[in-house]
Amino acid sequence: MSDGAHAHPESFISKYVFSVDHKVIAVQYLLTGMVMGLVGGFLAYVIRMQLAEPTGSVPGYGTLNFVEYNAVVTMHGTIMIFWVAMPILLAAFSNLLIPLMLGADDMAFPKLNRLSYWTFLLSTVVLVSSFFVPGGAAAGGWTSYPPLSASAAYSGGHLGVTFWLLAVVLEFAAFLMGGINFIVTIINMRPRGMGFFELPIVIWMQFVAAIVFMLSVGPLLAGGIMLLLDRVVGTGFYDPAAGGDPILFQHLFWFFGHPEVYVIFLPGMGIIGEILPVFSRKPLFGYRMIVWASIATGVMSFIVWAHHQFIAGIDPRLATPFSITTIMISVPVAVMIFSYLATLWRGSIEFTTPMLFAVGTLVLFLLGGVTGIHLGTPATDIFLHDTYFVVAHFHYALIPPVFMAFFAGIYFWYPKMFGRMMNETLGKVHFWLTMIGINVIFQPQFALGFMGHQRRIANPLLFDSLNTVQAIELQWLSTIGVLILLPGQIPFLVAFVRGFFSGEEAGANPWRANTLEWVAPSPPPHGNFAEQPQVYRGPYEYSRPDREEDWFPQNLAS
Prior knowledge:
Blueprint: H1 12-17, H2 22-52, H3 66-101, H4 110-129, H5 152-155, H6 159-188, H7 201-232, H8 246-280, H9 287-300, H10 319-328, H11 330-344, H12 353-375, H13 378-384, H14 388-418, H15 424-450, H16 469-485, H17 490-502
Helix pairs in contact: 2-3, 2-4, 2-16, 3-6, 3-7, 3-8, 3-14, 4-6, 6-7, 7-8, 7-9, 8-11, 8-12, 8-14, 9-11, 12-14, 12-15, 14-15, 15-16, 15-17
């Protein structure tokens, strides 16, 4: 074990560009994900402005034809899920937290970690390049279903789809390398005294998410290669005229796609699980129950995929079993949510910015979870499938873990990353603009879904049910929400940059938290700790009656 004084001299390139330090790699993933978040956010603005004024020009972008609109929708979904949620929640936070919370000096395989990031960056370059190839970016939806994605005749774009497939394959290869690193580090590099049930809850969630990703991604990789062969070689795996079946791709996609929801969800919930006890000054309620619930969620995520295909032509006898498993997976998720709410009960709650975002995550996710029941039930899903009700639902399900938990985590661990505090006033302004913007965007979309507003239509005025005063007002209301939400991120960007240069000095443990990352200096030096700390207890010993202090660090002997 070494500290900063023992680090050998490094050039700027080796220290900050081709670094093997897990903290630098975490920041690289974080910044890349944030830049891609700006791209995805701009595409969301284009989508909403187009739907509000479909015959006009989008300010800052121009006019869109139907193919271009579908390309914007496709790239928005792809970027937000694969190039924002995964690099930030899974890669950035795992790289930052796993070694620090284990008291370790780095990941088990630092060079593999570096290769993972640069493979991911290459995938990012390939994806962004697809905007500029002849025919434009992929326009077959983020699910890339054939026949839309199999032939340019159906959705436009040719090279764009090939670039999309190549980028996804590269990105998944990067996260497979990262996942191996996370799992091996957690199993092998825990300090003395830290059994599995002394792990912080966010480490448990990242552990389960990495395993779920590794077990689920194989079928989609195979499906993507088969789709590429269909496009390039003409193999016909998904072409009925050649004996293929397009439904096969849907099965392969959703066998990965639904577990992927939990690959994003679990790390986000883990972040919330770290923040709630700190600012409630209470132990995490039902720690072991939450651990088992996260494992159960990961296992059950593999047996729910066909609820995305109730109207796709699958055997109707499969609808009931998949409906039952879909409803059942809400049980372990509900266990987590209620445990978090119980943690708040009678706590000494301090509404700092991280705590506001943590509580906001729970509120928004409850809306996403409740509306998901309608889509897991065939009787209602048949009518709501592929409408804006679905759009509103999955944004309420994904925005809490992806964005709200991300902001909660950044405000919470920023002092550890950079040694300085972010501005609290700017943070609270950011929180309220974000909460208002999200709800103004997506609440009207539930109503639009009930009106029959289908996804991926560039001009809703062509449909009588949507060419009404009420529907047009709802379109504009949803668009105004985007115009609140996107500028609402400016306080965050200001606080992020300003904190780095002139924020208040943070000290090692500004939140008086128990886990091991707060033992290291802020920011941690090369090697993190002078020597690996020993652990004497679990991570959530707050407000013990036998102690004067209301916190009890894991490394402090009794």
